[in-house]
Design goal:
single chain, 12 helices, alpha+beta, elongated, three-stranded antiparallel beta sheet
């Protein structure tokens, strides 16, 4: 049976260390603070804003400018220019992304055509000197969380492009938990999904969970029984693209 592209990206081969753990790969990983994911500010974001933020995390490259051109973002997210502009504004207002320099629209007046310039952004937790902006989302009354959620950039882009907005939201908030060095795989085992915490209605959340189960991204750890809620864990296919890191 042929594996899906998402499963192939998630199961990229790694070098195994003598202690049996996987060695860090050369591929790029997005590194997102668990404290950010658990914050009330992040939970209040629209679906479009969350997807734009994740796209920025996947596009980030050290020592390079972070740009999110409207045409490419619109193509990837299948969203309107208005929705994308609003999402970027919401992220900047929340301190999740910082506008370094605004974009310049192309000038085609007077028979001349001057190329425009895309806006340049920065991620506070990735850019030195920007950490004070974390107070906008790090001290908003949300639960304290430690560590970083690390996910392979190619796999994150695949999730953004292929999952519905609701399923992607559920998947992200499943990782709003403490991250430790207990293993290379993000430990979400035993996590129950509360639709109120995710910010979805109960039927919508149920459909999103079914989508994640059908795509072999999540699997049941314990099925629901009576009043006992179901708990979930990452499928084996999805574990290769995700790992944990504690703050140094």
């Amino acid at each position: 049976m042929t594996k899906s592209k998402g499963a192939q990206l998630a199961q990229k081969r790694r070098r195994v260390l003598p202690n049996g753990r996987s060695a860090p790969a050369n591929e790029r990983y997005a590194s997102i603070p668990a404290r950010l994911l658990a914050s009330n500010t992040y939970r209040s974001l629209t679906h479009a804003a969350i997807r734009v933020h994740l796209l920025a995390e996947a596009a980030y490259t050290p020592n390079s400018e972070l740009t999110l051109p409207h045409n490419k973002t619109r193509e990837l997210l299948h969203a309107s220019d208005t929705a994308i502009t609003k999402a970027k504004g919401d992220l900047a207002a929340a301190g999740i992304m910082i506008l370094v320099s605004p974009g310049i629209a192309p000038n085609r007046m007077g028979g001349q055509s001057n190329a425009g310039r895309a806006a340049v952004f920065a991620l506070p937790h990735r850019k030195s000197g920007c950490l004070p902006n974390e107070c906008l989302w790090g001290r908003d009354g949300g639960p304290a969380r430690e560590g970083y959620w690390r996910i392979h950039c190619d796999y994150l882009r695949w999730l953004i492009e292929n999952l519905s907005a609701h399923a992607l939201r559920v998947f992200v908030f499943l990782h709003a938990t403490n991250h430790t060095e207990a293993g290379m795989v993000a430990d979400i085992s035993g996590r129950a999904i509360n639709h109120n915490e995710v910010g979805l209605t109960k039927p919508t959340c149920a459909r999103a969970i079914c989508e994640l189960l059908d795509r072999d991204i999540l699997e049941f750890e314990r099925r629901p029984a009576g009043r006992r809620a179901a708990t979930y864990r990452l499928c084996v296919k999805a574990r290769g693209g995700i790992r944990n890191r504690r703050p140094s």
